[in-house]
Amino acid sequence: MSQPFREIAPAKLNLALHVRGKLPDGRHAIETIFAFCTDGDRLSIKPVNDGRVELATSGEFAPELDSQNLITMAAISLRTMAEIHAGAAITLDKRLPVAAGLGGGSADAAAALRLLTSMWGIDPMHAQALAPKLGSDVPACLLSLPMRGEGAGDKLMPIDLSDVSGTAVLLVNPRVPLSTADVFARWDGVDRGPLGDWRQGRNDLEAPAISIVPQIEKVLAWLAPQPGATFARMSGSGATCFALFESQDARDAAADAVPREWWRLATFLR
Questions:
Q1: Active site residue: 39, 41, 108, 137, which one?
Q2: Could you tell me the pLDDT band of residue 3, with boundaries at 50, 70 and 90?
């Protein structure tokens, strides 16, 4: 039996996220800095001869997944685009919270596209063409490299984040799922200006997210003053927040002190 193709679907962080207005298609115009962690969900894929596309899930957050998972959609759409009749048995170890601002579903779909492109031996351009049709974050997650995103977040430009590559980071989520659509719906419509240096930027979705999930404010208030923390912010539309640390030891000490009722992940920036 052939060995499965395996990959980590790296958790996505928005180091900054400015909402600038609306696009003609009704989506929000944003400017953001994407960074990725060394940890995330895990995918394993094996070929299936009869053309079926199957998805099995495991892990802490598997029960929270929607039955219309983006992974299956990505696989079937990629096969159609490449005009092939091939199958796949996909296993997802769901380690990241769902609806958490970490691009989990997008990262999972992107990892599936990378794995299937390799396993099926098809042109990677098919995956690149399909990614924006699956979601605004999928193109960035497909690359899983530091990027500046504009438009709806799917117009990408490489950015140098070598100064923070390898930085210890702690992700904390109050275990409350948060709908991206609901958060954007509560944005006040005020353009607070363009995104320059991400450290001096902001996350314009933080206030509307807190209005829905007040625990986010408590998470940020806990993270920011932790010994060794150099930067703290909410990621994406929430509810996950993160802090960068000056050392792994400081990050680990903070991780050990996270209130038990919250989810946490001690990792590094890629």
A1: 137
A2: confident
